[in-house]
Amino acid sequence: MVIIMHPEATQENIDEVVSVIKSRGLDAKIMIGEQQKIIGVIGDKAKFASVPVDAMKGVDHTVEISKSYKLASREFHPESSIIDVDGVKIGGAEPVIMAGPCAVESREQILEAAEIIKAGGAQFLRGGAYKPRTSPYSFQGLEVEGLKYLAEAREKTGLKIVTEVTTVEAIDHVEYYADMLQIGARNMQNFGLLKEVGKTGKPVLLKRGLAATLDEWLNAAEYIMSEGNPNVVFCERGIRTYETYTRNTLDLSAVSAIKHLSHLPIIVDPSHGTGKWRMVKPMSLAAIAAGADGLMMEMHPNPARALSDGNQSLTPEHYREVMTAVKKLSAFMREELD
Ligand code: PEP
Ligand code: MN
Predict the structure, then answer these.
(1) Are 148 and 55 in contact (CB under 8 A)?
(2) Could you identify the atom of ligand 1 that is nearest to the CA of residue 272?
(3) Rounded to the nearest 5°, which phi and psi values hold at 38?
(4) What stretch of H or E contains 316?
């Protein structure tokens, strides 16, 4: 349930409503936007039935939330959220670009990649230190050593670091070295992991599960938010369909659907979404045109030598080409389409 307050409602009115809600064993979240003052009620519907909302000063009306997820829903939070990752704003006017190799392979490789990424204009360096590989015999990542190289790359370039956390045990390390925690597709419904990253204050990049519906994805965000972490960004990275030419089927319609259903930002990963480096540029442009708040793309200084995902990794030259095109398209959209 959401309580919409009168625009003239005072802080005292809001405090009184919150106090009544809490006295009934429910929780309340206050959202003061530019247009609206809203109080979200969390908890059992039956308990709310006995709250005399109409008798309370400053209340305009109530709206029932039909979704199983609340904190992530736009009904609950009509204004779009901007997630601030240490000064980089995801969900604002400019698309935010995260780029880098699939995995951190060595100190030299990640430092070289970071320089290329920075020069091309992206704001985040990506690279897995914990790799969730389909085969247990594939390269599993450098773990803490890899995190240290990422942190060194941040020192040298000023790029923010986004990197995957695959287990609850690794959270402390990843939280210490990274600016943003990535939940990979394979862990999107690892509820124990979602709850634990929800207990950290770190922004979370939540990738869509391999075969997740939008409802399941939104509920995964709710798991994180319900633990007290509101800083969630969605990442569409393709889903399993009957098509085998591409690694996954990139669902760009998810961008507009998520924008309608949720206030949280959404970015698109055309590298994992297609599995083919040639498709990264057209799908990046399509994602931006569809309204994505940013992109995640794989770039390797030498894709032919990559230990993972070489086929979908851009060369430095192609990365620069994609960045130039993305910047032109977003400038056009800002200037001509607003
Ligand atoms: C990745 O970003 O390196 C990755 C493993 O992606 P996904 O979880 O989308 O497969
Ligand atoms: Mn990868």
Answers:
(1) no
(2) 9
(3) -130, 140
(4) helix 316-336
d(CA 57, ligand 2 centre) in Å: 54
The structure's pTM equals 0.92
Q: Are the beta carbons of 295 and 97 closer than 8 angstroms?
A: yes
Give tens-digit pLDDT for 146-199.
999 999 999 999 999 999 999 999 999 999 999 999 999 999 999 999 999 999
Pocket lining: 18 vs ligand 1, CB cutoff 6 Å? no
Residue with token string 């800083």: 231
Most confident range, picked from 21-25, 58-62, 188-192? 188-192
- Distances in Å between the Cα of 71 and the Cα atoms of 77, 78, 165 are 7, 11, 23
Q: Which of 105, 269, 311 has most ligand 1 atoms within 8 Å of its beta carbon, as the pocket-test mutant? A: 269
CA 143 to ligand 2 center in whole angstroms: 15
Is the per-residue pLDDT at 108 higher than 90?
yes
Residue 152 to residue 114: CA distance in whole angstroms: 10
CATH class of 2-63: alpha beta
Pick the CATH number of 83-337 from 1.10.630.10, 3.20.20.70, 3.40.50.300, 3.40.50.720: 3.20.20.70
Q: Is 273 in the pocket of ligand 1 (CB under 6 A)?
A: no
- CATH 3.30.70.1140: which residues of the chain? 2-63
**pLDDT tens sequence across 161-175:** 999 999 999 999 999
Residue 113 CA to residue 301 CA, distance in Å, equals 6
Q: Where in the chain is the domain with CATH 3.20.20.70?
A: 83-337
- E-assigned strands of 6-120? 27-32, 37-42, 59-63, 83-85, 88-90, 96-100
